[in-house]
Amino acid sequence: MPIEPTAAAPRVVIADDQELLRTGFRMILTARGINVVGEASDGVKAVATVRELRPDVVLMDIRMPRMDGLEATRRILAQAPDCRVIMLTTFDLDKYVYAALAAGASGFLLKDVTPAHLAAAVRLVDTGDALLAPAITRRLVERFASGVPTSGAGPGRAAAAPAVHQDLTTLTPREREVLTLMGQGLSNTELAQQLTLSEATVKTHVARIFSKLTLRDRAQAVVLAYETGLVKAGGPNNAPPSTTP
Q1: Which three-class secondary structure state does DSSP give residue 166?
Q2: What is the residue extent of each domain of the chain?
Q3: How confident is the model at residue 208 (pLDDT cuts 50, 70, 90)?
């Protein structure tokens, strides 16, 4: 029996050039009490629809006509920074997923996702969390960080390796260490065990890192750790040991 959306239910826009997929996702989400407020068949329409309807979450296909999902995501988050974008892809290691995460997407889903997982994913990112488990994000970043274009780089062109982000200087030694370990795929529980801290203390460090570096979620933290050189693909922990709690 369908669940009626409540006032607190996420408002969703579905952007995909396949009408059948949009219809299926709409039916799945609506049946689970999630309010689908709009659809778009390409990136240009997606940007316009989000501007008009101001949804909480966008399900965004990576490959669409007129404007692809990467450029649409960049434009959407520039005009609506509180919006959350979930990328839709056919392959679990699509070469553009890393670029999507770097552009601010909160995660990705395969198009054959189960109905329960789809609804859970939308609700998860609506709370401000990242959809990807850190280990999965790490796998994507390690595979593509050295050769995939980030936002602003054209298809087939690798972005130049950036210098260490100047904002990292605002982190304490312990926060820098926590960010490095997040980049290596450690969960809060694993961070607490490795650093001999309580999970509450770890969560405080993570929250401060997000605030200082203006990060949306863990997915962006992992990307930043690689882009700044704190973590290198296949490399060891590059963070200096910290004695600061």
Answers
A1: helix
A2: 11-131, 166-227
A3: very high
Q: Which fold has domain 11-131?
A: Rossmann fold (3.40.50)
**Structural domain 166-227, CATH architecture:** Orthogonal Bundle (1.10)
Tokens of 38: 């709009």
DSSP string spanning 221-238? HHHHHHHTTSS-TT----
Distance, C-alpha 154 to centroid of its chain: 20
Q: Which two tokens stand for residue 160?
A: 């130049």
Q: Does 107 score more than 60 pLDDT?
A: yes
pLDDT tens by residue, 48-60: 999 999 999 999 9
Say if residue 7's pLDDT is above 90.
no
pLDDT for 123-167, tens place per residue?
988 877 666 655 555 666 666 555 544 444 443 333 333 334 457
Beta-carbon contacts of residue 30 (< 8 Å; ≥ 6 apart):
2, 5, 36
Instruction: Name the DSSP letter for residue 127.
Output: T
Q: What is the CA angle 44-47-52, rounded to 5?
A: 125
State residue 92 phi and psi, 5-degree precision: -75, -10
8-state DSSP, 39: E
Spatial separation of the C-alpha atoms in residues 84 and 12, rounded to whole Å: 10
> One-letter amino acid identity for 122?
V
